[in-house]
Amino acid sequence: MSESVAAGPSSQSAIPLCVDLDGTLVKSDTLLDSLCQYARRGPRALWDVLRWATHGRATLKIHVANQAPLHPAHLPYNTPLLQFLEQAHKNGRAIYLTTGAEQTLADRVATHLNLFNGVLATNGETNLTARRKLERVQQHFAVFDYVGNSRADLVLLAHAQNAMVANPTLGLRIGLWRRGIRVASVFQDRRPPWQTLLKALRVHQWSKNILLAMPFLMTHNITGRGLTALVAAFFSFSLMASANYLVNDMLDIESDRLHRSKRLRPFAAGDLSVLNGLGAAVVLVVASLALLSFLPLHFALWLGLYVCLTAAYSFSLKKVAVVDVLLLSSLYTLRLLAGGAATGTVISPWLGGLSTFLFLSLAMVKRFSELENLRERGATEAHGRGYLVADIEQIRSFGTASAYAAVLVFMLYIARPDVTILYRHPARLWLIVPLMLYWLQRVWLVAARGELDEDPVVFAMKDPPSLLIGAAVVAMSIFAAY
């Protein structure tokens, strides 16, 4: 669809309706979405973006749109506004997509929705925003209605016959109030910001960082100083992990939108902007680093390694089959090492071996569950991953073998004669073995039925039998120690 538009309004409509795209018809900013997708290519992408930006914003938009195209069918549309436009289209009203987004992307959106009589968008010479957009609109229409969302739309809303807004920013609200512009309609389609941010931080995933306490607790020598260091380490690691989740989700925006459940994540759903996500990530990193002043240098080194590994995973290694699950499982063992460094506790090689096999199995079951869900929908490969649906049985064999290896390591540990140093009744630890076997087999059984939520940690936190088994394991450990 080209930029050409009718010379005047439709005979069935008194005034043409001009609709903005970014933040308005679509809840997110398509330029930032494309930049996030392009950033997944690695450091070279940053250099390319800087080089394109020196030639102007219009040039930047064209290159980014060509290198990282978005799927119009999966963009997070503003549902109330879209329903309004569909009804207006049925009534014969002339509607025009009037956007600062790049022309080819705007054309593909217009073709997908099939609601617009024409498209006005950024081309190779002009970045169509603010006053430049107003001038272009006035070249075609003597009067018009307009729907926008940001302060850049204020000049168009001021000249519109009827001003309408969608998910208006604070800057736009203030501008409308100062100019005394009356708003005819508001199309709100966004979750509360604090609720959305908390969801993006994945606070429930902080439960993984309880592993930091394992080396300290297993010494059976609890001190106030150690507990203080442990609390500081827990929050430092958790804040850094949340910052990593934010960055990872921003890089995965396009892939998440193609996923059945991940499309509801805050960035993919357009409920949290990329700019706000970047700001939150910076705050979290600063807060995490501030807590390092209360912790030993060795903990900071392990935290730094965690950041490097998660960055490598986010940018490239998540797409390499087998390597991705090995890296994910190693991050759990790294938590044990970081916790030991924080409290000055030496990590038992038995604990390291147990965690390696146990969490490798859980990483495998996560991939297995994803592929099982894809197979049910008739897909053949995981978007943005290195797996095919045909790999599912091989992953099952890898994962179940790792689960039994974890139980075997635990059994060999119990059989060691020196275990009596920590446990007065080590034979009672054998009661934990059937619990481990039952839980691991149950997780794999649930995954094979397609009932796992694709994250075994989330599953365990919501699953009553899993919570009961966890409490029983703790009780058995105490029963064996005293």
What does this structure look like?
Mean pLDDT is 90; it is low at 6-12. Among the domains are: 17-187, Rossmann fold; 193-347, Orthogonal Bundle (Tetracycline Repressor, domain 2), CATH 1.10.357.140. It is an alpha/beta fold and 482 residues long. It has helices at 30-39, 43-53, 57-67, 79-90, 103-113, 130-140, 154-159, 170-179, 193-201, 214-217, 224-251, 253-257, 274-290, 297-315, 323-343, 349-376, 392-415, 432-448, 456-462, 464-481; strands at residues 17-19, 95-102, 118-122, 145-148, 163-166, 183-187. Helices cover 58% and strands 6% of the residues. It has a six-stranded parallel beta sheet, with helices on both faces. The relative contact order is 0.08.
Task: Give the helix/strand layout.
Layout lengths: L16 E3 L10 H10 L3 H11 L3 H11 L11 H12 L4 E8 H11 L4 E5 L7 H11 L4 E4 L5 H6 L3 E4 L3 H10 L3 E5 L5 H9 L12 H4 L6 H28 L1 H5 L16 H17 L6 H19 L7 H21 L5 H28 L15 H24 L16 H17 L7 H7 L1 H18 L1
Helix pairs in contact: 1-3, 11-13, 11-14, 11-15, 14-15, 15-16, 16-17, 16-18, 17-18, 18-20, 19-20
CATH architecture of the domain at 17-187: 3-Layer(aba) Sandwich
Unreliably modeled segments: 6-12
Cα distance spanning the termini = 76 Å
Mean pLDDT: 90
In the CATH scheme, the class of the domain at 17-187 would be Alpha Beta
Give the helix proportion (percent range): 55-70%
Overall, the morphology is: elongated
In CATH, the topology of the domain at 17-187 is named: Rossmann fold
Strand line-up across the major sheet:
3-2-1-4-5-6
Broad structural category: alpha/beta
Cα Rg: 27 Å
CATH superfamily placement of the domain at 17-187: HAD superfamily/HAD-like
Tell me the number of strands. Answer: 6
Total number of helices: 20
**Largest sheet composition:** 6 strands, parallel
Q: DSSP strand (E) fraction? A: 5-15%
Order of helices and strands: EHHHHEHEHEHEHEHHHHHHHHHHHH
